[in-house]
Design goal:
two-stranded parallel ribbon, 4-stranded parallel beta sheet, alpha/beta, 10 helices
Length: 303
């Protein structure tokens, strides 16, 4: 049955449960702003079928990561209009901290309470975050992100009584069921490749490698103006030859110049994996499709 969150009822609940900054807009709708595409997909999944709620996406560009992203005037206005902001956390959105601090909207952090991997700096690229923020690349972490969104919205809307209302919990359970079914298929698909060496030209695949039992031998954050050093190239060539690695991996929106040069020298192939930082659609299916494509690519390249 479709759960209904009437605008007027929502308005009253927010007044009693949250600060005035969490009030819906003049149209009686709770405007939720998701900072990144994965967070947007998970938030739309949790709010599926809930009326009186609108979810919009802040950053949806074909970019390999957000290290060098600059907020636009439109982005600033979107943050200003938001009633609730959902962020990935773990340092991914540090570049927009000042803008978020200037907003009165409460913020739900999807990384709260999860065990994060420490950040790893790379030559030629500056990482200012303490932890690796790419948590959505591990399906088990996505389960935690869905829970954080569901609980966060429930508390904002219903206060201490959030557990007795099922609007957001229903969407969360449906999304987690879809994800769990896919995760089981993925584990079976990847089982023959567990322990295989993985070399990527993006530092965002550590959670992905951890999730599927791959040995991440080297990850280089290579962007325009910060190409791999000669020492790193030499190291990768040595790893490819030592482990007889048939393929190395770039990110779909990242640079592949160095990877192609290494491929020419070693004879390995170059494949692209998707960090799922942009796309179309809502809910869990676009995420599931992108992850499945990544795994199919891994199997084709390393199988």
């Amino acid at each position: 049955m479709k759960k209904i969150l009437e605008g007027a009822c929502l308005f009253g609940l927010l007044l009693s449960a949250c600060t005035p900054a969490a009030e819906p807009g003049d149209d009686g709708t709770l405007h939720i702003l998701a900072t990144t595409y994965p967070v947007y997909l998970f938030t739309t999944a949790v709010t599926e079928g809930v009326e009186g709620v609108e979810v919009s996406l802040l950053v949806n560009q074909q970019t390999s990561c957000l290290h060098d992203y600059t907020l636009t005037v439109g982005d600033m206005k979107a943050i200003e209009r938001a009633d609730v902001i959902v962020r990935n956390g773990a340092g991914l959105e540090d570049f927009m901290d000042d803008a978020l601090a200037a907003s009165d909207a409460p913020v739900i952090d999807c990384s709260a309470g999860v065990e994060l991997l420490p950040a790893q700096g790379h030559e030629g690229h500056d990482h200012d975050t303490e932890y690796d923020p790419h948590i959505w690349m591990d399906p088990s972490y996505v389960q935690g992100m869905l829970s954080a969104i569901s609980m966060g919205l429930g508390e904002l809307v219903y206060g201490d009584d959030w557990a007795s209302h099922g609007e957001f919990h229903t969407g969360q359970l449906a999304a987690k069921d879809m994800l769990e079914q896919a995760r089981q298929r993925w584990q079976e698909q990847m089982e023959p490749l567990q322990g295989n060496g993985l070399i990527t030209f993006h530092d965002g695949f550590r959670y992905f490698a951890q999730a599927f039992g791959l040995d991440l031998l080297k990850a280089i954050e290579e962007e325009e103006g910060s190409e791999a050093s000669a020492a790193e190239i030499k190291e990768i060539v040595s790893l490819v030859e030592e482990y007889d690695i048939p393929a190395i991996f770039t990110e779909v929106n990242g640079s592949d110049a160095t990877a192609q040069a290494i491929a020419r020298e070693t004879g390995c192939e170059v494949y692209a994996l998707d960090m799922i930082m942009s796309g179309d659609g809502t809910g869990m299916q676009p995420y599931l499709d992108a992850m499945q494509k990544n795994l199919d690519t891994i199997v084709e390249a390393l199988g």
